[in-house]
Structure formats: structure tokens, C-alpha cells
Hints:
five-stranded mixed sheet; rod-shaped; transferase; two-component regulatory system; HATPase_dom; single chain; His_kinase_dom; 11 strands
Amino acid sequence: xxxxxxxxxxxxxxxxxxxxxxxxxxxxxxxxxxxxxxxxxxxxxxxxxxxxxxxxxxxxxxxxxxxxxxxxxxxxxxxxxxxxxxxxxxxxxxxxxxxxxxxxxxxxxxxxxxxxxxxxxxxxxxxxxxxxxxxxxxxxxxxxxxxxxxxxxxxxxxxxxxxxxxxxxxxxxxxxxxxxxxxxxxxxxxxxxxxxxxxxxxxxxxxxxxxxxxxxxxxxxxxxxxxxxxxxxxxxxxxxxxxxxxxxxxxxxxxxxxxxxxxxxxxxxxxxxxxxxxxxxxxxxxxxxxxxxxxxxxxxxxxxxxxxxxxxxxxxxxxxxxxxxxxxxxxxxxxxxxxxxxxxxxxxxxxxxxxxxxxxxxxxxxxxxxxxxxxxxxxxxxxxxxxxxxxxxxxxxxxxxxxxxxxxxxxx
Length: 412
């Protein structure tokens, strides 16, 4: 028959088992069982560290005194004061004074909480599942030389109770994390697929627009010019006054053709960069609109635009181009500001106008706002559009990391 002390100890183990039931995260388990464990192994500080599945990192969960161990993100195993236990080099660690024990203090060791909180007496045992070490149970107390080998044996029994629960929780968390990562990857892939599809549709509409412009405008003008020249072939003499209208028509055709080409291929962007291309487009768009619009560019990007790839540069220019066109076409503004800036390793471009506001933006599917959103999505940038907080008008903002990766080919 069990004696009274062993029976009480057995009841404590059963109490720990009951407290484990229904706990769904590591922190809850530690908080639930800490008081019951204190009846078996007195402690001022209790923690469980769990090895990550990659075997290189671990994370700590504490009860009682809170230290930097649990406030840190997963840390490298090589810096753990109990790395020899977690790697299986030793079967347990028992120290009468951990503040001076060289096993806990080595170059690169994250052992400062031991000194700061005077955690002198320390014992550590591994958490094992199917022979593999998945973590460690650690107990500490302020007084020196407080633990014995009997405490180590009791800690091993507690560790055997805890290990399967922590193993199952770690597996569940890993499965959850993997599912989230997979879902995010699928969402990104689907977003890129839909974005590419929308951009393809937009480009097809743009191709048709260019074709119609060439057919209805340039080709029609050239046809009329050709017919007038044919009529002149019947004349024996041709005066300068007769040729003057033909020269004007030819100059107009050249102007219209240059404008179509300019809109199709941003050569200023390729030659001089994003800022100059935006400035050129602003100047030309305002002049051609005939509106009294004051415009300016505020460049606080610290040269960040000089280092981005051509694909990202083209996408950013096209977004600003569309935003400027929308502002002039729909907003009837008196001023337009393009603000380029960097903050916290991010690049931001804002197009701010004082026009009629977002309610006046009307875009067909595949154009306008949808096209800007698609271009931003394809370079992993954040796109926002809303009312100007300074009063009337609209703000279009696109933001992306300064070190945004790029490919060698340009977006159309």
C-alpha cells in the first residue's frame, strides 16, 4: 500500500493531468499547472521551452516571474543557457548556484535573466516524445542549493506528463501555420492571375483604342491629304499658296502620330527616370487640357526612385499617369501635387488634387481605378484612393518597400 507522501504525490500528478485537459495553447498550460507543480517542486520561476520543428530555434513560456526569455521571438538554440540539455548532450542540469555556474554563461549565451532575477538554484529536465527531445522543463528558486536529485526525478515525471500535450500543440500550431501560409500563397497566386487577366484585358482595349485612333484620325487625315495631292498632279504649276494647307495637314498628322506614340511608350521614363517622366506628363497634360491648373512635384524620395527596376518604374509611372489624367478629366482641379517620399524603408507616391472629388470619377471596366489597382497588385504595392483630407479633391497613393524586387522585363 502506498505511504501517505507517495499517495499525495500521486494525487498531485493526477491533478496536473486533469488541469492539462482542455488547454489549447502553451501559455495556458503553464499557467494552469504551475500552482500544482509548486506543491511537488517549489519554485520562484517556472518555464517550458519548446524547440521549433527546424531544430534551430526555441521559444519559452513562463509562469511566476516574467523574464526576457518569453518576451523574445523564437531564439537560436545555440544561445540558450541550456543548449546542452536541448541537444541531448546531458540528461539533466542541476545547479546549486546558476549565477556563477559556467555551464549557463558562455559567449553568446542569453543568460542575463539568471543574474538579473538571482535565479540561483536551477534544475532542468528534457521533454521527450518517442525518444526525441522537443523541449525542456525548468524550475528556479532564489535560494542557493535548494534542489536535490529527488527533485530532478519528480521533474522528470512532470515532464513525462507535459510532453505529449506540448508535442500535440506544436504539431497543431505547425499545421495551422502551414495552412495559413498555403492559403496566403494561393491567394497571392490567384490575385496575380486575376490581375494579369485584368491587365491583359486592359491592354487589349488599349490596343483597340490605338487602332481606332490611327484609323479614325491619322489614317483619315492621310487619306484626305493624298486625295488633295492627287488633284494637284493635274495642275501644270503649283504655287506656294496651294501647298501651304497641305503642309499644315501634314504637320497636324505628324503631331497626332507623335501623341499616339507618346501615350503608347513612355520614352522619357526609359531615358531619364520616373520623376522626370511624371514631370513631363504633368506639364503636357495640363497644357493640352487648356485648364488653369497649377502643378508641382515634391520629391522627398532621397533618390530611392533611381534604384528601382524598370518593371516597377513603368508600373508606378502608369499609375501616376492614370491618376493625373483622371484628376484633369473628371475633377476640374486648380492644382495637382505629386508627392514622392520615403519612410521606414517604404516608398510612397501620392497624387493630390483639389478637384471635384472621388464622386466624379467614372471609369469603364478595365480602365481607370481598376487598372491602377491591377498594376499595383502586380508589383506587390499597396494602392489607396480617397478624399483629400485637406479639403476638396482626391488622393491616390501607392506604397511599396524600397527594396522591392523586380524582373528584367517591363510591364506593358
